[in-house]
Amino acid sequence: MPQPTHRPLFTTTGETLVIADFTPRPPRAPGPYRRLFTHPGTRAFTAGNLLARLPMGMFSVSAVVMIAGTRGSYALAGAVTATGLAATAVLAPFTARLIDRHGQARVAVPATLLAALGSLALLLCVRYDAPVWTLFAAYAATATTPNIGGMSRARWAHLLKGDDTSLHTANSFEQAADELCFMLGPVLAALLCGTLFPEAGTLVAAALLVTGMLLFTAQRATEPPVQEQTRTKAPLRAPGMPPLLLCCLAMGAVFGSMEVVTIAFADARGHASAAGVVLGLQAAGSCAAGLAFGALKPHGRPETRQPWCLAAMTALLTLPLLTAATTGSLLLLAGALLIAGMATAPTMVTTMTLVQDRTPTGRLNEGMTLAVTGLLGGIAAGSAAGGWITEHLSATAAYGVPLTAASLALMISLTATP
């Protein structure tokens, strides 16, 4: 029942009467995220998307714990996961191209089942002490996993075509979901492997991946229609794409080096187990900033916004370096990473918007996957660089690696001409 409001009425004798006005107030306009999910089918495909995306943060941690726990070698575990990362960088663009040509459901489901079989094969090879080479072969098979984030963004781009403001909100939500899943995934994997049995993380991750992908692809009403393939330029050759992918490579180096350096910094102070929480705070800062960024109406073109976002990322990445160098406190470093992480999501949202704008028609999944491949390559390079500086100098000095990588991304963005 509407609440009454009171208004005065004046009589001819000058007396004041107050009566209740029961006129209902107009309903408050829904917020940007609530408005986003009023489109039919969006909640269902988002639920499947989140279920399938959570394992992305679980597989590598689960594999490391499983292999190192049974074979007693972190070097072997790292080599196996690195092989899977390299295989993904090679195969992912081809999987995405098939999705663009034949549709999400027709390609993503069999590709996901093959990846899940690879995970189960790895589990069995570890469990039954198979030869070392079988671990590499099994984990390489997981490279067929489709880019679920790219497919979800492609659905939003199809549903919100012509509505740039809502698409900006959708991209911000997707980036926040990325951060949330990569924050919760490793924690869940470590909990499962530690409390149940070493293979539990891999087993649960495979089940979530298949279940989520089946739910996601079952929402056929929101699936982008397959467009007739024309002789368009490959996304890699589209105007403005090469420097954009170089930016992704540099940003990946920020993420990869930050993870390795933070783990080493915490370990050097006898708090290795706290490294996951500290890195989780960085992801939490990015997640919160992404949601806030999506609620704002974007101003100006994304080409103009990207250098500003990268400049903010570069400036904020000085905080972990200064904190580590001047205080050596893991607690203060956690606060610095929380603040530094707030530049990540706006930068990634703007970058992915540019990828969507510059990718040729009908090849959006391929373009988005190329960006993710650039990020993966950067993560691998950043991890190697951060580890080398840590070993030869110190973990404190190695915080200069993500700062340098962000500065490089900023220079690329400033000099690029689409």
The largest sheet is:
2 strands, antiparallel
Q: Per CATH, what is the topology of the largest domain?
A: Growth Hormone, Chain: A
The H-and-E topology, N to C, reads as EEHHHHHHHHHHHHHHHHHH
- Note poorly predicted spans: none
Number of strands: 2
User: How many angstroms does the end-to-end distance come to?
Assistant: 57 Å
Compute the number of helices: 18
Q: What is the structural class? A: mainly alpha
Question: What is the CATH architecture annotation of the largest domain?
Answer: Up-down Bundle
Query: Gyration radius, to the nearest Å?
Result: 24 Å
Strand fraction: under 5%
Give the CATH level 1 class of the largest domain. Mainly Alpha
CATH homologous superfamily annotation of the largest domain: MFS general substrate transporter like domains
Could you give the order of strands across the largest sheet? Answer: 1-2
Tally of structural domains: 2
Q: Report the helical percentage.
A: over 70%
Name the average pLDDT. Answer: 82
Instruction: Please state the overall shape, judged from the principal axes of the Cα atoms.
Output: globular
GO molecular function: transmembrane transporter activity
Pfam families: MFS_1
Organism: Streptomyces aquilus
InterPro entries: MFS, MFS_trans_sf
